[in-house]
Design a protein that fits this description.
This protein has 172 residues and is of the alpha/beta class. The chain has one domain: Ribonuclease H-like superfamily/Ribonuclease H (Nucleotidyltransferase, domain 5), CATH 3.30.420. The chain has five helices and five strands, in the order βββαβαβααα. It has a five-stranded mixed beta sheet. Helix 4 packs across helix 5. GO terms for molecular function: crossover junction DNA endonuclease activity; DNA binding; magnesium ion binding.
Length: 172
Amino acid sequence: MAVILGIDPGSQKTGFGIIECVHGRCTYVTSGVIRLPPGALPERLRVIADSVTQLVNDHCPSELAIEQVFMAKSAGSALKLGQARGAAIVPCVTSGMAVGEYSARQIKQSVVGTGAADKRQVQHMVMTLLGLPAAPQEDAADALAAALCHAHTRSSLVSLAGATAVRRRRLR
């Protein structure tokens, strides 16, 4: 069993989503958005770190899936996004969690089937894949999509490792 925390980092709001995966079947645990206060960036980073620490303490995830930094509107925006990612990653690594990092395109491809999917498509597929009664908020859906991408990638790697082990035994 794996409990996967997905995070969609941001310097104004950070989405989170937690899923539990058992034998390739993923179920929804919780999701939401950490709304950050206006003001200085260091204070907002503290809120991210404290909130993620609380999620880790409450739900004991074993793995983290987080979106990589992309060059957004400006270098300054990318730097702030990178700092928000760092604030979210540190509490997870401190608790011993494995970290998987994925591009937005990889996440969309894994969940929707195309790396060019829009936010509504991601919300719809997350809702469908997890059997949710309604679409989660955009940032929470993105975080759940990251967690699902990690679960799919993890499952594929385990399958490949098993197939390689079987082939090695046959060759001997």
